[in-house]
Write a structure and sequence with these properties.
The protein contains eleven helices and eight strands. It is α/β, with parallel strands linked by helices and about 220 residues long. The N and C termini lie far apart (about 70 Å).
Length: about 220
């Protein structure tokens, strides 16, 4: 009911009112009685569309998540590790995403940069990292890396035998294959500006190690 009328009766009443008005009166009547309602409805509609899009984006399957630590990677490099990798796998952009954090920098003068990064590692935020010597020492020290001797398949492990970097993990005496030296790869030469060593490490949840190995193979394939 609208003002004591059924919806059908209300529509007929409005039609009758409008039929008795000229163009200018109709315009003024619309502004006075309906404009605010229309604007409000449009705003609500836009918000609903934005929420649905945002929810859809966040609900996409995450193929792999990586981070670049203490290194300057070009936009093309970030794209190569991101959407280009998704396309390389032939995955739909509507239902899949590849996450890459290209600007992780650890600064001794800013202890919070280490604290934040360590918290992210503790929650398995990254499947892999590309980093320098400083970053490698830090992540190895907090024992969050996979032993690549155990993770890589025998064929890939053999091909990378001279590129493995062995380190004692954290405070334990166990030495692991903590990283792969990718300094001389076409990927590093094309996309990373550095005169330092560049390493690839696998981190995060063991059940997701394969996603990191997949992108390592992708990096090594670049010509």
């Amino acid at each position: 009911m609208i003002h004591g009328l059924t919806f059908k009766e209300y529509i007929e009443d409005e039609k009758n009112k409008l039929s008795e008005m000229n163009k200018a009166e109709k315009k003024d009547y619309f502004k006075e009685y309906y404009l605010k309602t229309v604007i409000f409805a449009v705003i609500v509609l836009i918000l609903l569309i934005w929420i649905l899009i945002d929810v859809g984006i966040n609900m996409r399957h995450s193929i792999v998540t990586g981070g670049v630590v203490n290194l300057d990677i070009s936009e093309e490099g970030s794209l190569y590790l991101g959407n280009d990798y998704r396309d390389y796998l032939g995955k739909s952009k509507l239902t899949n995403k590849v996450n890459i954090a290209p600007g992780i920098f650890l600064d001794r003068n800013e202890p919070e940069s280490y604290t934040i990064f360590q918290a992210e590692l503790a929650t398995n935020s990254y499947n892999y990292l590309i980093t320098d010597d400083v970053g490698l020492e830090f992540v190895n020290g907090i024992e969050c890396l996979a032993d690549l001797d155990e993770v890589l398949d025998s064929d890939l492990s053999g091909k990378l035998a001279d590129k493995k970097i062995y380190k004692k993990s954290g405070e334990s005496d166990k030495e692991i294959a903590a990283a792969i030296d990718i300094t001389d790869t076409a990927f590093t030469k094309d996309y990373i500006k550095t005169g330092e060593k560049v390493y690839f490490v696998v981190s995060g949840k063991p059940e997701e190690y394969e996603s990191a190995i997949g992108i390592l193979k992708y990096i090594l394939e670049k010509k």
